[in-house]
Specification:
The chain is α+β, with helices and mostly antiparallel strands. A seven-stranded antiparallel beta sheet has the order 3-4-5-9-8-7-6, sandwiched between helices.
């Protein structure tokens, strides 16, 4: 009888240990949890009242109040917790008569860019994040600058380097960014987007 009770208790302990080990393997890291939240988050559109340009930002980012904006045309959004801080900001600046290529080269040097891409009406810069001349260890930036007449519209994300692989949605958002919102067709069921001639 004692032997049976001992075997029964041992089986329960072994089963509990197996269940505990299995649950430990399924615990997600903060990076995985954040990546999943970002993947399924709604994207909120914000329109700058000074220049009427639009940016889309995940719904769980916090907008900085207009009263704290340092300059006309600036918007700033943050996500922060005890592990990471991610900043998305946009602003408008004069191109000072520079061509797109000259502006890209000038800003690339100023911002310590390690990568650059030139498009027909935009350029993209990325590299390590500096603030007031000092390197912010473990953080980088990714910026798109779009030209419109004598103005450049800038959309930037500052992020922790080790989260880069879960930020694909935000990189795509910046890559696809257009200054003004595209009109969305409101189709009724059965209607086509194809224009009729």
């Amino acid at each position: 009888m004692r032997k049976g009770i001992f075997i029964f208790i041992a089986v329960i302990i072994v089963a509990a240990c197996i269940d505990w080990c299995d649950s430990c393997e399924n615990i997600k890291s903060h990076k995985e949890v954040f990546g999943r939240e970002l993947t399924y988050a709604d994207m909120n559109e914000y329109k700058n009242k000074d220049y009427d340009y639009v940016v889309r930002v995940p719904s769980f980012f916090t907008a900085q109040p207009d009263s704290l904006q340092e300059e006309k045309g600036r918007m700033r959004f943050e996500y922060g917790d005890r592990w990471i801080t991610i900043v998305i900001e946009s602003h408008v600046m004069s191109n000072n008569g520079q061509s797109l290529k000259d502006g890209m080269d000038s800003l690339a040097q100023l911002l310590h860019a390690t990568e650059r891409k030139l498009g027909s009406d935009y350029f993209i810069l990325s590299g390590p994040q500096y603030e007031e001349g000092s390197l912010i260890e473990g953080y980088s930036y990714y910026s798109k600058v779009m030209a419109n007449h004598k103005l450049w519209f800038v959309y930037t994300m500052i992020y922790p380097d080790d989260y880069k692989n879960v930020l694909a949605r935000l990189f795509c958002e910046i890559d696809d960014w257009q200054i003004w919102e595209c009109p969305r067709l409101q189709l009724k069921q059965g209607e086509s987007q194809t224009p009729t001639r």
